[in-house]
Amino acid sequence: MPSISIAEELAKKQREISISEFFERNKQILGYDSATKALLTAVKEGVDNSLDAGADADILPDILVEVRKIDKDEFVVVVEDNGPGIVKKEVANVFGRLLYGSRFFSRAQRRGQQGLGISGAVMYGQITTGKPTKIRSKVAEQDVAYEIELILDTKKNRPNVVEEDFVVWERAHGTRVEIPLKGRYNAGKQSIPEYLKATAIVNPHARITYRPPEGEEIVFERATEDLPPKTKEIPPHPHGIELGTLMAMMKETKSYKLAAFLEEEFVRVSSRVAKEICDAAGLDPDKKPKSLVLEEAKALHDAMQSAKLMSPPTDCLSPIGERLIKRGLKNVLGNLRPEFYAPPLTRDPAVYSGNPFQVEVGIVYGGDLPPDQPIEVLRFANRVPLLYQAGGCALTQAVANVDWRRYGLEQRGGSGLPFGPAIVLVHLCSTKVPYTSESKEAVATADEIMTELDLALKEAGRRLKTHLTKKAHRAKTKEKFEIVQLILPRIADKSAKIVNKKVPVLDATITKIMGVVWVDEDIAYDKKAKRHTVTLNVHNFTAAGKKLNLHLLLPRGIQPKSIEPKPAEVRDDGKITWELKRIDSVAKASISFVLEGLDEAEYDESDIYVSGINPGLVIGAEPLPGDWELNYAEFEGEEAPAAEAEEEGEIDYDETEEALDDE
Amino acid sequence: MPSISIAEELAKKQREISISEFFERNKQILGYDSATKALLTAVKEGVDNSLDAGADADILPDILVEVRKIDKDEFVVVVEDNGPGIVKKEVANVFGRLLYGSRFFSRAQRRGQQGLGISGAVMYGQITTGKPTKIRSKVAEQDVAYEIELILDTKKNRPNVVEEDFVVWERAHGTRVEIPLKGRYNAGKQSIPEYLKATAIVNPHARITYRPPEGEEIVFERATEDLPPKTKEIPPHPHGIELGTLMAMMKETKSYKLAAFLEEEFVRVSSRVAKEICDAAGLDPDKKPKSLVLEEAKALHDAMQSAKLMSPPTDCLSPIGERLIKRGLKNVLGNLRPEFYAPPLTRDPAVYSGNPFQVEVGIVYGGDLPPDQPIEVLRFANRVPLLYQAGGCALTQAVANVDWRRYGLEQRGGSGLPFGPAIVLVHLCSTKVPYTSESKEAVATADEIMTELDLALKEAGRRLKTHLTKKAHRAKTKEKFEIVQLILPRIADKSAKIVNKKVPVLDATITKIMGVVWVDEDIAYDKKAKRHTVTLNVHNFTAAGKKLNLHLLLPRGIQPKSIEPKPAEVRDDGKITWELKRIDSVAKASISFVLEGLDEAEYDESDIYVSGINPGLVIGAEPLPGDWELNYAEFEGEEAPAAEAEEEGEIDYDETEEALDDE
C-alpha cells in the first residue's frame, strides 16, 4: 500500500509561502518578465507613487526620472518627487514590504492601490543585482531628510535596513528612490520616454523631467497650474456588492441597527432608502446587523440589488476630459495631420461590484494616418497609459468586439481590430480598476465595464460615421455643383449662338437643378493669440426663400466671443442656436464667432445641426436630433432635391458634356 | 504648511494587507471576473489538484466532476478523486489558506504550483454565497474519511472550521470538495465540458466523469492504462539564475565549500564543472559560500552563465507527444475532415531563469476547415488547456509574430493571426510555467520561451509549406501528364493517317517530354485491425534507367511490419531507407509496409525523401536534407526536366490542342 507513506510524505512538504517568496518566483506577474520591460515597470511604479503623493497632499507634482547605466545590463532607476514625504518609521515598510500601503482600502481613484508596486521594484532590483535600494524622504516639519538603504527579506516579507542616516536636502519635502536593477534600454515604442510623454499629457498639472542613460534631458512642462479636482473617498455602492462581502461587513460594523448600517456604510443610501430596503427584505430596520442569519442576509442582499438608487457621485472619479483626450490624440500624431477628430465622449459613471467607474473614448481619423494597418488603440486606466498586454485587456477587446464595418472601417468578419486610418483612445477610471494581474498592464473583462465600453465605442463610431457620411454627401453634391456650373453656361452660350439670341441668366436654373441649402465653414487660426475665427456660410440654392435655425455644439467650458449675428440661445453645455432670417433664393447668410485659448487641433470642424427646415435639403449640416420627424412632416410638400431628378434620368450630365466637347 | 499633517495622516493609514484580503478585492486576478468564468475556474482548480494528486502517488486518476444548480445564479461544484488523500491535520490548511501548498518549491512539472488555486475557489464561494465549503478526505491507512466544513478568515488568511466529523466512505482513499458559488452556466465554447474533453485528450491515463446541471452524465474514458512517465524534481540549472537568487542560496546553503555548493544545488554541475566555474570566476573552490562579497558573487554568476553545460535532463518534463497532439487536433475537428496533418513536433528542452521547459506544436490544415477565418490556436500549458486570455498569452503572440505568408497562409502585413483553414496546437511544459497572473490563463513572454516557440512554429510552418508545395507541384505535373497522354496519341494517330504510316509507339516520347521520376502512394486502413497498409510506387518517366534511395520518416515508436522489399536501414527515430535497384525507363518500382495500432488519422501521408538522384527530377518526394548539394553536383549532367523545356517554348501544348480540336 504505497499511498500511506505518500499522503504523509506530501503532508511534510506542505508549508506556507510568504507573499514575497511567491513574487520572487513569479516576478513576471509584477511586470518583470523581460529585461526591457523591467526598466519601464520600475519607472512606472515610481512615477505612480509620486503622482499619487502629489494628489494626496494637493501639491503640483514636480517629478524627476533618471535612468543611469552602470554596466552592460545593469541600471539604476531614480524617481524623485516634491510630495509630502513619508514619516521616518514608515519609510522602510513602504519600500521594503509587499502588500503594505495606505490606499488599499480607500475607495478613491488612485494609480496605486495594491501596496505591491514600489516594493516589488525594490525586490526585483535586489534579485537581479544583489544590491540594496536607497531611499531618501523628507517631511515638511523636519530640517533634514531621512535616508536608508534596504534589502527586502523575502522569507519574512520584512524590510532589512542595511544603512541609515540623516542628510541635508535642499527640498522642503519629497521622496527619492534609487533602485539598482538588471535591464535593457529601449528607445522605441513601449519605451520610458513614450510612457512619460503619455503620462504628462493626461496629467497636465505635473512637470516631469527625464534624464535618459544617454543624450539630452527632456522636460515635459506642466500645461496647467490647476490641480485636477480632488477625488473623494466614498463607501461602496449597494449595487453589485457580493453577498459574502456584505455578511463580512455586517459582522464588523459598529452600527447597532441594520438601517443605520446601510445608511452609514454605503453611498446613495439615505435613511428613507435604508428603511425601504429593510422593508423589501422583510427585516426589522432595528435588527442588529451581526445577528442576521444566511437567509436574512440573502434577502437583504436581494433587496439592495433591486433597490432603485442614484448612480454613485462623480467626485470620486477624475476622467481625462474631452480637451485632454483630443490633445493626447494630437500628441500621438506628431507631424501627421489627420482629417478628423471625432468629438471625444465621457460617459456618466456606472457601478461594478459596488465600485464606481467611468469610460471615455476619443477617435481620430484619416489624413496622413496609415490606411492599411490595424487601427491603433491607446489605453489608459486611472490616467496611467497601459503599454503591455494589449491583447489580454478589456479595453482592446471591447474595440475588437464592435462591428466597425457599420462605422466605415474595414474589418474582416465584423470582429477583431479593424483596419483603417484611425487611432482610438480608451480611458477607464474607477475607484478600483480590475486589473488582470498585479502588474496593472491590462483590465479584466467585468460585464458592467464591457457594456459601458461597448456603448461608448459605438457612440464614437456613430460620430465617425456621421462625419464620413457628411463628407461623402458633401463631396457628391460639390461634384454636381461643379458640373452644373461648368456645363449650363456652356449650353446657354452655345444655344444662344445657334438661335442668335442673348445668353440667358442661369442662376434660377442652377438653383432649380441643385435644390439644396449648402452650409460651409471656414476656420482661421491665429497661433500667437491662440484664437480660432469661425465663419459659416449658408447658401440657398433652391428656387424659394428659406428660413432655418442653425445649431452648433462647441467644446464645453469655452465661451464664444464676437458672435455675429446675435444668437437666439447660448447654453452652458456648449449648444448655441441662431434663428436665421429668411434667405432669398440664390442668396446666402453668414455667421461668425471667435474661440480663444484652444490649441489649433482642438477645434477643426464644427458640429452643425439644423431645424425648422426639411433637413433632406441641407448639405453640410445634420438634422437636430429629436427634431427630425417633425421637420419631415412639416416640409413634406417642398420640392425634391435635384439628386432624385438625376436618378430618374431627367438630366444626363455625361451626355451633355460629351455633346459640348464635340464642338 | 499643510504637508506636515498630511505625511502624518497618510502614515496612519499605512497597514499590512493580508494576501486573502488582497484577493478578496481582486478576485478577477484568480480568474473570477465573471459569473460564467467563475464556474469554470473552480472546476479547473479542482481537476488540476486531482490530476496532480494522482501523479504524486502513481495512481491512475478517476475523477468525478459535478455541477449542481441550487438557485438561479447559485451552484455547487463538486470534484472528487481517488488520489492518496490528505492527512487530517493538513486538510483545513490546504483548502482554507492562500499561498499554502506542497509544490511551490518543487522543480517538477505540475499543474498546481502556487498554493492559491483551490483555496481561492473556496474564498470566492464564500464571498459570493456566504456559505462554507465541504471537504472530505480519506488516506489509505484510515477506515473512515475526515469531513469538514470551512470558511476562510480573510483578515488572517487562516481556515475557520465550522463543522468537523468522521464519516464512512466506500473509497479506499481520495478527496472530495463541494464548493457553493455564484455562477452562470454556459454550454458553448470555453465551457466546462469543452475544458474537460481537452483535458482528457492530453491526459489519456485519466478517467473523468462529468455530471452537468442538466442532461446526461458524460464519461471521458481513459485511453491508456499506462501512467505517463513520472516527472522528477530537479534542482535549478545554472543558466539564467538571477544574481540575487544565487546570493540568497549561498546564504542558506548547508555546504561549506563553494564547489560542493555548486555541485549539490544545481543540475548538470559535476565536481569537475564546479571547479571549472570557480576557476573561471577566480575563486577558491574551498571558499565558504556564505563569505562571498557582492563582487565575488557577481564573478561567480558570470562564470556560471558562460560555462558550457548540458541541457537540463528531460525527465522533469512530460510533453504531450506527437501521437496525442494529433489525436487532440483530430478531436477538435469532430466530423470535419482536414486535408493534412503537419507532423507534430516536440523540441528539445531549453532553460529560462534556471527552469527547464519544452515546446510542442501541431498543425492541421485544409479540407473542411473554414478558409475565411483567423486560424484557431489551441493552447496548453503543462497538459492543461488554456481557454481565456488568449490575446495576452505568449503562445498566441508567438503565432502572431510569425510571417505565415511564407508558409502559404494569408496574413495582412505579415503579422497578427493569419487567416486560413488551419488549427495550430501549442503546448508549453516546464517545471515552472511563467503565468501572467495567478489565474494561470496565459503565459508571459520570457525571451527564451519566445525564441523556442518561434523556432517550433516556423518549423511547423515549413512542414505545412512543404506539403502545400508538394501538392501544387504534383497537381501541376499531373495536369501536364494528362495533357501529354491525351494529346500525343492523337497527334500520332492523325500524323500516321496523313502520311499513311503505322502509328508509332509513344512511350519513349512521353517520358522524354515528362522527364520526371514520379512517386505516389496509396494508404489503405483497416479499422477493425487498426492497420495501415502503405504502398509507394516509383515511376521512371525519364529516357534512361534510374537508381535512387528512398527514405521515409515514420512516427516514432512504431515498428513497420511486412516491409517489401527489404529496407537497407530501419532506425529508432523512425527513419527507414530503401536502396532501390535500377528502374528502367517507363518502368516502376513498388514498396509496401504495414503499420499497426494507429488511429486512421494518425497516418495519412508519408514523409518521403530521396537521395542518390537529382531531386529536381523527382515529383512526390523531397530531397533528403543535408544531401541536396551533393546530389546536384553529382547529377548536373542529366537531362533537364520537361518543365524547363516548356518554359523555353519548345512545345506549346495549347496550340497543339487547339490544332487538334480544329479537326
Q: How would you describe the overall organization of this protein?
A:
Two copies of one chain form a homodimer. By secondary structure, chain A is an alpha+beta fold. Chain A folds into four domains: 19-220, 2-Layer Sandwich (Heat Shock Protein 90); 243-311, Helicase, Ruva Protein, domain 3 (Orthogonal Bundle), CATH 1.10.8.50; 321-467, Ribosomal Protein S5, domain 2 (2-Layer Sandwich), CATH 3.30.230; 505-647, Sandwich (Immunoglobulin-like), CATH 2.60.40.1170. Chain A is 33% helix and 24% strand. Chain A is built from 17 helices and 26 strands. An eight-stranded mixed beta sheet of chain A has the order 7-6-5-8-3-2-9-10. In chain A, strands 11, 12, 13, 14, 15 and 16 form a six-stranded mixed beta sheet that branches. In chain A, a hairpin with a 2-residue loop joins strand 14 and strand 15. The longest helix of chain A has 53 residues, at 447-499. Mean pLDDT of chain A is 85; it is low at 627-663. Chains A and B meet through helix 1, strand 1, helix 2, helix 3 and helix 4 of A and helix 1, strand 1, helix 2, helix 3 and helix 4 of B.
